[in-house]
Design brief:
The chain has 13 helices and 33 strands. It has 779 residues and is an alpha+beta fold.
Length: 779
């Protein structure tokens, strides 16, 4: 049998814990009883003359004592009640008829509002029902607006209307989303609606903004942090909004605080807390692959993070499954602890090339949207690397490190060409391009390499004795004009910012080892704890001074000399990555001052693993890291061959709707904004058929792109922000999920603690006056 519908409490306390001090009201009574005199009759002649006077005034004295006792007891009761911050719902009742109100209803449609309890009722459905009942209770002179709190927020009814039926229909049409909430923009939108109504709408006597939300930390944690930081006694380093173990927290509190203060100046603010008690929520929080490019020749290492959250969360065991193209391929039991994410790892060898749809999946619970996390990877037969050498043999060591036996079955396949062949080579066939001791480039060649990297390709540059630093800086390290399209610069043959560094002079060193800089970068992270691999002792006799290019972003030093000069630097470029090595990749580059090779690195034990990690890092740019979350735009390069024979480019959404994609001038890339659902988005020609998963070599797989979009992990923490942690401008009304079957009466809560304190002050003054008056009385 289902539970009865929820009801709003007509009277409540924001600080109910203080009510225990009501027992202090007994203190005046106890003191009165303790001070009460005990008579003992003693016959005395003079007493007989006093008895008559005492009897005449006994009733008046008893009345005075009881009156003072009642006043002093009431003072304590009023002070304790005021400290508990009682609120009283008065909307539509005590305000009385004729009080015209502009009421802005804000319904939280974030992912956490999808949660269901045992009676299969979602929090969002109850929020919509309560909002509709508030519409029913509105007076004939009231006007209404409706906003939806999501990312981004929307305004189904912006300009206020008195048509209650239209508002109810708009409330019914509100759909749940898989997104988080953009609270600063929601507050700003509410303020904009109120200002616009005040400027052009009918005059009103009162303005209100009523939020219907579960007060989850993912949505409201930023405001709780604002309230804590505004408390002088609070620790500024503490952030109660931070959900433990979540990789993505709430939006910055500095954005929400000013927006809330601005809105509070325009209207009274209240939140109807519709959060449901229930079991904890399990969720998949992250999913990624370790290898740079998914190939058919080595197992794919899939890593994920799962957790359980919520005030009622308990340690539990659950099963995690890895699925590929919707089919479960592996699974295991994991132990979950509240607020402590658990790492899980799978190894799976893909059997078919093309785009593969990976997912980690948990059993369904009350919030099913976050039980699956997705990742799209393009499986290739092998990693394809193009080695370009500026002198014969300059790339021999690099090629041998990737495929020592030159086996056709190796996971990395290389092709070596000379720098003169580079202009006629189609770079789109390769995952990474490695340049070894190439002397110089024309601006057009640099532009081709930059366009390749921006589309997701990897580029590694080894320097050497043939490199002309001045030509590099002029052709490929110089900055492009601000705001200019790199693809247009390529077409015009102009210089473009390919490298993230500026090349300086070549200098000699003592040949000491290298500094791994704490193994912070992914290229050298596998060397941590493996000091015998030879990385630290790699001798470097000569290298080119590297400095970050002004304006370049994300530049990181990978390794350095013992003197602190960078030996390897990396940076993102568009969807790709670029790595520059300051020394040579072969023993053929010789220091003219000493006659020694620039470095012995190509013959050192660490060379093979560091080259492989470099290829893994650069070739995995397009698939590295976490996929975007709902509400974030997705973008990429036009898939090769897409739309050439099958019409314009289009995106197929997770709900199977297909929408055309408008390409920017030149058609070099695409961008899609409406990622309002979690799932896989396929970008291809409008009339192209998706490659079949059963096809061992799907035709046209390269002519499409698949992007995974996931739910925001911060929404998985269903813990509720406590009303006392929110700013004072927000009053909170709690929903009682147990009660009679009748409908709730919605009202704007009015704090009465100020009135109670004033009443207590009045009684203190009255007590003083009565005590003085009674003390002057004559017997």
């Amino acid at each position: 049998m289902s539970n009865p519908p929820p009801h709003l409490l007509a009277f409540g306390f924001l600080n109910a814990a203080i009510l225990g001090w009501l027992a202090a009201a007994a203190a005046p009574i106890l003191i009165h009883l303790w001070m009460k005199r005990v008579r003992r009759e003693t016959p005395w002649a003079a007493v007989r003359f006093l008895q008559a006077a005492i009897k005449r005034h006994s009733r008046r004295l008893r009345l005075q004592e009881w009156l003072l006792l009642a006043v002093r007891t009431a003072i304590i009761l009023l002070v304790v009640l005021a400290a508990s911050k009682p609120v009283l719902d008065t909307l539509g009742g005590l305000l009385g008829p004729g009080v015209r109100t502009h009421r802005v209803l804000v319904i939280d449609a974030s992912m956490s509002m999808q949660r269901r309890t045992a009676d299969d009722r979602s929090v969002l459905a109850e929020a919509k029902r309560l909002a509709a009942e508030l519409v029913e209770q509105s007076g004939p002179g009231d006007s209404l607006s409706l906003l939806v709190m999501a990312d981004p927020p929307s305004a189904p009814i912006g300009p206020p209307t008195t048509d209650a039926g239209a508002v109810r229909r708009a409330i019914t049409a509100v759909e749940p989303t898989d997104a988080a909430t953009d609270l600063p923009r929601t507050l700003a939108q509410a303020a904009s609606v109120i200002k616009a109504a005040a400027a052009s709408g009918p005059a009103v006597d009162r303005r209100e903004v009523v939020f219907f939300s579960d007060l989850s930390v993912g949505s409201w944690g930023g405001l709780a942090a604002v309230a804590e930081r505004s408390d002088p006694a609070a620790d500024p380093a503490a952030d109660p909004a931070a959900a433990p173990g979540l990789e993505s927290g709430p939006r910055p509190a500095t954005d929400s605080g000013p927006a809330l203060a601005d809105l509070a100046e325009l209207a009274s603010l209240s939140v109807v807390d519709v959060s449901k008690p229930g079991a904890g929520n399990t969720a998949v929080l992250s999913l990624r692959i370790d290898s740079g490019v998914a190939t058919l020749r080595e197992a794919l290492v899939v890593r994920g993070t799962v957790g359980v959250f919520g005030a009622a969360a308990e340690a539990r065991s659950t099963r995690v499954e890895l699925t590929v193209d919707g089919l479960a391929v592996a699974g295991r039991e994991v132990e979950l602890s509240p607020g402590k994410p658990t790492q899980v790892e799978f190894r799976h060898k893909l059997r078919r090339p093309g785009w593969r749809r990976l997912a980690l999946r948990l059993p369904d619970d009350g919030l099913a949207a976050d039980n699956t996390r997705r990742l799209a990877v393009r499986a290739r037969p092998f990693v394809s690397v193009l080695c370009v050498e500026g002198a014969r043999g300059a790339a021999r060591y690099v090629s041998s490190a990737m495929n020592p036996a030159a086996s056709p079955d190796a996971p990395i396949q290389t092709r070596t060409i000379s720098d003169t062949e580079l202009p006629a080579t189609d770079l789109s066939e390769y995952d990474t391009v490695v340049l070894c001791n190439v002397a110089e480039f024309s601006p057009r060649e640099a532009g081709r390499l930059e366009a390749y990297a921006r589309r997701g390709g990897g580029l590694a540059v080894f320097l050497g004795d043939r490199v002309r630093a001045g030509r590099y800086n002029a052709a490929i390290a110089a900055g492009a004009p601000r705001g200019a399209s790199p693809f247009r610069l390529v077409a015009q043959g102009k210089a473009s910012p390919l490298l993230p560094v500026v090349l300086g002079e070549a200098v000699s060193s003592s040949g000491g080892g290298v500094d791994p800089l704490g193994y912070r970068h992914p290229i050298v992270a596998p060397f941590r704890g493996r000091e015998r691999a030879g990385l630290l002792t790699t001798p470097v006799n000569r290298y080119v001074k590297l400095t970050p290019r002004p304006g370049a972003s994300g530049v990181q030093a990978v390794i350095a000399t013992q003197g602190g000069d960078p030996l390897m630097m990396a940076a993102p470029l568009g969807r790709g990555r670029v790595v520059v090595v300051a020394t040579a990749a072969s023993l053929a580059s010789v220091d003219p001052a000493t006659g020694r090779p620039w470095t012995a690195m190509p013959a050192w034990p660490s060379f093979v693993p560091i080259v492989r990690e470099m290829v893994r890092y650069t070739s995995g740019a397009a698939t590295g890291g976490e996929p975007p979350t709902v509400g974030q735009p997705i973008a990429g390069a036009v898939p090769p061959g897409a739309g050439r024979m099958a019409g314009p480019l289009a995106v197929t959404r997770p709900d199977d709707l297909t929408e055309p994609l408008a390409l920017p001038p030149g058609g070099s890339g695409w961008r899609y904004q409406r990622t309002d659902a979690a799932g896989f988005y396929r970008i291809a020609g409008a009339d192209d058929e998706p490659a079949a998963a059963e096809d061992p070599d799907p035709a046209g797989a390269a002519a499409e792109t698949v992007v995974a979009v996931n739910t925001p992990p911060q929404e998985s923490d269903i813990a509720r922000v406590q009303p006392g942690d929110l700013p004072a401008e927000l009053s909170v009304r709690r929903v009682a999920w147990q009660g009679a079957a009748g409908g709730p009466t919605l009202a704007a809560p009015v704090g009465v603690h100020h009135a109670l304190l004033l009443a207590a002050l009045g009684l203190v003054l009255l007590d003083t006056a009565l005590a003085c008056w009674f003390g002057r009385g004559k017997p």
